[in-house]
Amino acid sequence: MWCVFCEHDASKSRSVEHIIPESLGNKEHILKRGIVCDKCNNYFASKIEEPVLSSINFQNLRSRQGIANKRGIIPFQYGIFAQAGAPIALRTSPDEGTSVGAWHEKDDARFVRALMGLNRGTFLVPLSMPIDDRLLARFIAKIGVEVYIEKAMEGDITVGQIIASEELKLIRRFVRRGDSPENWPMSRRRIYDEEAIFSEDQSVYQVLHEYSLLVTDENEIYAIICIFGEEYTINLGGPSIDGYRRWLSANGDRSPLYMS
């Protein structure tokens, strides 16, 4: 039993690996114990997933959608109280309504003074914010590699064969060590609204996340990951997205997730 990322013995590992982090609502898509060792699992959680998920972009998304963390807590949304020039923390609950306060304790007094001295004011809460490209690429690459592992093992390919594959060596190193290459470009675009409601067989539902693999005519393998309507695509074989752009152009810009 070898870890697919560090290639060390994982026979004593106890943790399972969530392909999509639990903090994005994933309870089902899990790699069994030992495929990712405890050390790599902990590293991904603290050095890749936590910084991405605590970024304003993802924290506000999780708050808007009411997705709790492992402790059952829904995060606050980050915003600005324009009249006080102070960051705010905002949370909306179906049971308790909306609560708002200063983001930093040191701003509490200034926030309250400004609030009490106004008849009206403005809270600015961003829907999207920039996020470090390299960190996000490692986050998506980690998910993409694990999607590949899940699909490969469904086809009776072993972890040993995956480790031996030359095609995945570079991206596995990029995820685990992050020391090379300098950049790993990916495609990022919105394919449906985060609040979109779908229906099928008289069922109505919202899509939290979905993923698939695309093998192009150029024999490139892309992982397609969609999180609340935002599609991320990464080339598992190398740091280039040109082949995916050509594929999109040839297929009317339709997402591979929604091709028959």
**SS-based structural class?**
alpha+beta
Shape: globular
Largest sheet: 4 strands, antiparallel
How many structurally independent domains? 2
Helix content: 25-40%
Tell me the β content.
15-25%
Gyration radius over CA:
21 Å
Give the number of DSSP strands: 12
Strand order of the largest sheet: 5-4-3-6
In the predicted model, the low-confidence regions spanning at least 5 consecutive residues are: none
| Continuous helix count | 7
- Please give the alpha-carbon distance between the first and last residues: 37 Å
In round numbers, the mean pLDDT is 93
Order of helices and strands: EEHHEEEHEHHHEEEEEEH
Write the layout of secondary structure elements.
Blueprint: E1 17-18, E2 30-31, H1 38-53, H2 56-64, E3 77-81, E4 86-93, E5 97-102, H3 108-116, E6 123-124, H4 133-154, H5 159-164, H6 169-176, E7 187-190, E8 197-200, E9 203-206, E10 209-215, E11 221-227, E12 230-235, H7 242-250
Helix pairs in contact: 1-4, 4-6
